[in-house]
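Regression test case RT-17, inverse folding.

Input:
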């Protein structure tokens, strides 16, 4: 294809037609960077004296060569924004630019050659220098290059699709976010530099070519190849450009404007997401007030992709995570697929139509798209409870590296990945807080203003604040400076912990804030305060009653009396946590243990549980309150608090509690679970089941069964038989196999174990029964089967040994003691097996298992006695081992909690079905 054909004419027409100048979409000016001595965050940023308007790209990939390469040419219409003699854009060491081809076309048709072309490999700059100053105006730059791929699946790369074992299919595609478009073509590779694209791809006739836009023309060349040219794109950033060559087929909706492409053998597994995509699109169009701007929205599914998905405008790239086989995949996988698809479609507005000008504001794309996708899913699939699950998950407080805020300025390209660590979770929690702070109506109006005012442009955070402020000011509400309130939430690391104390005579409440992640940081936030009291248990109004603007504030709440409790942060809408004085905690706990507990909003019930267990982990005095609080769970049948409670069980299983082996603790937990398990059931009710009930069941059943729930003990052997005979749904097996196997084999007799050992030998990867051996209630059976691990005839692996000893370490005290004795006596044989399998490093894993799971000082002492022997020191650095594991011993802490439980049991035995 002759790239100069008709180019000059179209160039002149474009200029005469007055195509929009990109400079109008830049919300700020970047410093001109012509000197490598410039340091700091702007050094790797492009100069701002030029900007692209239209790329005409022609890409010729050699897809079936041994080494993947591609040829490219471009005619780039760009604008000189301020007089300069140099044009600087991005390139990569993967591109070899043909400098003889480079030329500049002036608006009068004059063609000019540069006097020099320089590549800065560190900054990935390609600078074209001319012998005179280029005046402000439009020009055309012609370039030619050859490219190769790197090994990280970024840029333009080729993979092999092995879906059909009888046919090797090559797939070539792109992944440019954040800085990899320069690996495919020279460009202004920063998101603020938006331009339009005319893209053409050369390919074999049996390949399908895809890009952001629908096909415009196809031309058969003399060599039998096809040039596919796509319609011109809207103004968009380089990272959103995509092109694909593959032997794929598609599955479309009824209207034909939505399609998913992928390997034909797998497309039928996309049925669920194909059905939901039109609903998501309609809901997003309604919410944003803007119709989807492109002619169609396609997706393409890859079996190898460097991320879960990528929101390319008009052609979303997906990993196989969106495929759903109801016969094999649990419904939680389907729900995750819906969430992923909704997120990428939300990006078509948040990120594509309106784009952060630089990556430090990536939260504008990722956090807003995530929250908008949750709102959308709650509308189209309400039984998924997407927002509620996000809130109860609690990871917003713990996700990503500590001491990193949501928004910050990186000093080098290598730091860019860290910018993506906070927006997906912490950023979403902040957006949800903002919505409730200004009201849903104001937030919705502000989002529509933000999109409408900035469509096809690039933005900074202040553009969002301005749009929201405009909507807020239109309503008669107390004055609020949104920027002043919100910037610290984005720019400071950590989150607030509020300490609440009360004067029960005067009613005065005092609130103090600290940074929960770093007490000494000095970080402060303007915190929206909402509250409910016993006298006014209204949790529905989430617009703030007050703002905490300093370290401390005091006020007397409306409608509170001296006998009331007070609960802050209604529905967990604020991104902060709360600790109360002792008396208020006691009143909350007492109220939860009454028939009125449901007057406290379910999201607050869940949060109270999470907060109190964290406090007890740090301070033993909270053990009494902890037991009082969780005692209320005997009444609770809503799945949300139980999802939080499951996290409490995990904490109880680890240091500093480590209680899960205690018979008293197990019976105590089972007594609390009884109503919930009866309500949720032991089996799911199909794809239409409420997602929260399904989630709670999946989380609770392993604990209930481990602790000896009679229903589990009854059904597990039957379910195990159904698994072995192929009568059980595979999707149910995937989510429930562990508790079924463990429960059935814990109580199994010798005949069942003989059968299961034979099953394991035939298919160890499918059944792997040795991971349950150490849980058996019959120590005689353990003594019979454990030696099988060390006989050559069985051919078992090092992982089988690890699995068996892991279960012994986590099993009963007798099983732990036997396992440790066996390990000590047979350590030489075990080392030989590991060395033979090239798994010598696993020996430290074994000792670590028993160090982690020591339940008594006696067990720890026995292990340490062996650690001090020469035999141990020949394997592992004993001092380093002790240093690694000694701090994990939690005997005193676990004893204190058990003491609190035993004392409380006397008080609560009337409510418990079984005397503990």
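Golden output:
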């Amino acid at each position: 294809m002759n790239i100069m054909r008709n180019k000059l004419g179209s160039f002149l027409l474009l200029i005469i037609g007055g195509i929009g100048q990109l400079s109008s979409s830049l919300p700020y000016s970047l410093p001109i960077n012509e000197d490598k001595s410039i340091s700091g965050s702007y050094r790797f940023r492009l100069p701002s004296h030029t900007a692209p308007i239209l790329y005409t790209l022609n890409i010729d990939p050699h897809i079936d060569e041994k080494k993947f390469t591609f040829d490219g040419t471009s005619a780039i219409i760009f604008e000189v924004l301020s007089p300069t003699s140099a044009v600087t854009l991005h390139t990569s060491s993967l591109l070899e630019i043909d400098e003889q081809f480079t030329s500049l076309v002036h608006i009068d048709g004059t063609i000019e050659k540069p006097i020099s072309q320089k590549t800065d490999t560190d900054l990935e700059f390609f600078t074209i220098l001319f012998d005179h100053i280029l005046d402000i105006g439009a020009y055309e730059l012609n370039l030619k290059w050859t490219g190769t791929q790197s090994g990280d699946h970024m840029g333009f790369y080729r993979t092999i699709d092995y879906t059909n074992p009888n046919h090797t299919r090559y797939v070539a595609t792109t992944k440019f976010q954040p800085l990899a478009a320069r690996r495919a073509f020279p460009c202004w590779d920063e998101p603020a530099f938006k331009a339009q694209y005319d893209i053409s791809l050369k390919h074999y006739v049996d390949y399908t070519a895809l890009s952001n836009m629908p096909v415009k023309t196809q031309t058969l060349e003399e060599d039998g190849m096809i040039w596919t040219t796509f319609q011109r794109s809207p103004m968009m950033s380089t990272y959103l450009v995509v092109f694909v060559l593959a032997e794929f087929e598609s599955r479309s909706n009824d209207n034909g404007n939505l399609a998913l492409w992928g390997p034909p053998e797998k497309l039928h597994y996309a049925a669920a997401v194909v059905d939901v995509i039109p609903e998501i699109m309609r809901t997003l169009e309604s919410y944003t007030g803007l119709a989807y701007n492109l002619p169609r929205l396609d997706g393409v599914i890859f079996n190898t992709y460097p991320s879960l998905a990528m929101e390319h405008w008009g052609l979303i790239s997906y990993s196989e995570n969106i495929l759903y086989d109801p016969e094999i995949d649990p419904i939680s996988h389907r729900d995750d697929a819906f969430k992923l698809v909704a997120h990428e479609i939300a990006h078509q507005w948040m990120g594509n139509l309106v784009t952060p000008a630089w990556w430090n504001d990536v939260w504008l794309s990722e956090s807003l798209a995530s929250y908008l996708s949750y709102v959308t899913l709650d509308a189209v699939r309400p039984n998924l409870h997407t927002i509620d699950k996000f809130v109860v998950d609690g990871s917003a407080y713990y996700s990503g590296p500590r001491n990193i805020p949501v928004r910050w300025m990186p000093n080098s390209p290598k730091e860019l990945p860290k910018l993506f660590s906070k927006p997906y979770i912490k950023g979403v929690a902040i957006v949800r807080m903002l919505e409730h702070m200004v009201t849903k109506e104001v937030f919705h109006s502000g989002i529509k203003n933000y999109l409408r005012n900035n469509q096809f442009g690039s933005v900074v955070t202040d553009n969002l604040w301005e749009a929201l402020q405009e909507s807020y000011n239109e309503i008669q509400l107390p004055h609020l400076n949104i920027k002043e309130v919100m910037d610290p939430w984005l720019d400071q690391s950590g989150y607030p912990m509020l300490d609440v104390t009360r004067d029960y005579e005067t009613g005065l409440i005092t609130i103090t804030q600290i940074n929960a992640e770093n007490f000494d940081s000095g970080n402060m936030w303007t915190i929206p305060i909402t509250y409910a009291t016993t006298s006014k248990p209204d949790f529905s109004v989430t617009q703030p009653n007050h703002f905490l603007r300093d370290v401390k504030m005091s006020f007397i709440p409306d409608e509170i009396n001296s006998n009331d409790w007070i609960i802050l942060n209604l529905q967990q809408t604020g991104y902060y946590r709360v600790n109360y004085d002792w008396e208020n905690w006691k009143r909350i706990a007492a109220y939860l243990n009454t028939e009125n507990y449901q007057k406290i909003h379910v999201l607050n019930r869940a949060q109270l549980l999470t907060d109190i267990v964290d406090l007890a982990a740090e301070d033993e005095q909270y053990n009494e309150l902890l037991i009082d609080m969780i005692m209320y769970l005997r009444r609770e049948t809503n799945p949300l608090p139980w999802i939080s409670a499951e996290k409490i069980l995990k904490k109880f299983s680890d240091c500093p509690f480590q209680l899960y082996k205690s018979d008293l603790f197990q019976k105590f937990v089972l007594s609390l679970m009884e109503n919930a398990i009866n309500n949720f059931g032991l089996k799911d009710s199909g794809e239409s089941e409420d997602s929260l009930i399904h989630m709670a069941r999946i989380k609770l059943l392993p604990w209930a069964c481990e602790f000896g729930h009679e229903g589990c003990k009854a059904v597990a052997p039957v379910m195990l038989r159904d698994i072995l005979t192929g009568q059980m749904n595979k999707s149910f097996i995937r989510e429930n196999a562990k508790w079924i196997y463990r429960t059935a084999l814990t109580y199994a007799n010798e005949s069942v174990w003989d059968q299961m050992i034979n099953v394991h030998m035939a298919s160890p990867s499918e059944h792997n029964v040795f991971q349950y051996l150490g849980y058996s209630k019959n120590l005689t059976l353990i003594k019979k089967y454990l030696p099988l691990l060390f006989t050559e005839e069985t051919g078992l692996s090092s992982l089988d040994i690890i699995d068996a000893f892991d279960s012994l370490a986590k099993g009963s005290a007798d099983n732990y003691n036997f396992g440790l004795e066996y390990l000590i006596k047979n350590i030489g044989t075990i080392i030989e097996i590991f060395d033979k399998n090239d798994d010598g490093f696993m020996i430290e894993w074994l000792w670590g298992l028993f160090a982690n799971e020591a339940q008594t000082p006696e067990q720890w002492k026995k292990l340490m006695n062996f650690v001090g022997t020469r035999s141990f020191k020949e394997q592992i650095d004993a001092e380093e081992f002790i240093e690694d594991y000694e701090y994990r011993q939690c005997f005193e802490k676990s004893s204190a909690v058990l003491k609190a439980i035993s004392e409380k049991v006397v008080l609560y035995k009337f409510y418990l079905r079984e005397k503990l």
